[in-house]
Amino acid sequence: MVEFAVAPGSREVLNMLAENGALADMISAGARILESGCGPCIGLGFSPGDGVVSLRTFNRNFPGRSGTRGDR
């Protein structure tokens, strides 16, 4: 199972994703759409279990930032 969450950086980005069809594609693929804001940047949400691989593309992406020490 793959968890997929999208946290647009702004309302403008969210609107762009909706207008070009990418938002619908991501939702169809099972994505959870999070509020625009700094949640991921400050380490909130989606803490993976030990040994679980987590791919994150925000600017504060370093070991342990996701909230668990055993994530990869």
Tell me what the structure shows.
With 72 residues, this protein is mainly alpha-helical. It has a domain of 38 residues. It is 22% helix and 6% strand. The protein is built from two helices and two strands, in the order βααβ. The chain starts with a strand and ends in a 39-residue tail after the last strand.
What would you say about this model in short?
By secondary structure, the chain is mostly helical. It is built from two helices and two strands, in the order E-H-H-E. Residues 2-70 form the Aconitase/3-isopropylmalate dehydratase large subunit alpha/beta/alpha domain.
Mean pLDDT: 80
Largest sheet: 2 strands, parallel
Radius of gyration: 13 Å
SSE string: EHHE
| Helix-strand category | mainly alpha
The end-to-end span amounts to 16 Å
Strand content: 5-15%
Total number of strands: 2
Low-confidence stretches: none
Overall 3D geometry?
Answer: globular
Helix proportion of residues, in percent?
A: 10-25%
- In order across it, which strands form the biggest sheet? 1-2
GO cellular component, one term: cytosol
Organism: marine sediment metagenome
GO molecular function: 4 iron, 4 sulfur cluster binding; aconitate hydratase activity; metal ion binding
Protein name: Aconitase/3-isopropylmalate dehydratase large subunit alpha/beta/alpha domain-containing protein
